[in-house]
Amino acid sequence: MGNGAIDANSHPSPHGVNGGTSVIGITTHGSDWYWAVTAIMTVSTFVFIGLSFTKPRSHRVFHYITAAITMVAAIAYFTMGADLGQTGIPVEFMRSNPKVSGTADNQNREIFYVRYIDW
Length: 119
Description:
Layout: H1 5-8, H2 28-52, H3 60-81, E1 86-90, E2 108-112, H4 114-118
Antiparallel strand pairs: 1-2
Helix pairs in contact: 2-3
């Protein structure tokens, strides 16, 4: 078994979206990390909701706000872990390592715009 999110959400071309392609994109290790953070944020949401019941009603709103923030973050990390919410941009700083340098024809890298929606 394993993390098949990147394969399941593959685009017509490698990391292609919005009519362009990115040859420098997320790996399965990066996706695994995002899934772990998704789980932590989701558990944190339920912990904050549970802790709210230990406080008087007038003080629960602070726990609810914190729970809402962690749930929005969980959704954002879920989207990044599933290789969604991303687009390609031109590389600004060229690297010499072939794993992260792209190709001569395509110098685009993948960024997750959902990260900025989360803010």
